[in-house]
Write the structure tokens for this entry.
Amino acid sequence: MSRALAVYAGSFDPATNGHLDLIERAAALFDNVIVAIGVHPTKHPLFSADVRKSLIQSIASHIPNVVVDSFDGLLIEYCASKSASVIVRGLRVTTDFEYELQIAHANADLRPQIDTLFLPTRTKHGFVSASLVREIASHGGDVSRYAPAIVCDALKKKFSAEA
């Protein structure tokens, strides 16, 4: 396993400026980064995995060492299948840390050779979540401060089609 490959995973439904910031920061720390979109059969995302993948590919197109993929099942097994040695997780608030630490411990128990690296969000993104962006956008609010333009456009189209 190489320290050169990290996986940054999430639902990215939708991707926010905070997500993009973490992708850029992870790409500066590691030779290669996979942004892995989790697909869970029990969840009903706003955007399909293919749309989320396309959006992230667009917003991260300026970062040459980033690829976007999707997976189902356990993240730790996905990382092992890609020979990744690090999982990157973003932290916004202390409750994120408590949850993420529990998952990191379980992952370390399952695959001790794969480490978890926690990156705190930048202060300006600390309160922004995908669910907040979805909620504001669903009521026609302006989310341009919280998400890249292409994501904002996709949200407008999605919610205008549902109206």
Notes: The chain has a mean pLDDT of 94. The chain has six helices and five strands. Strands lie at 2-10, 32-38, 66-71, 84-91, 115-120.
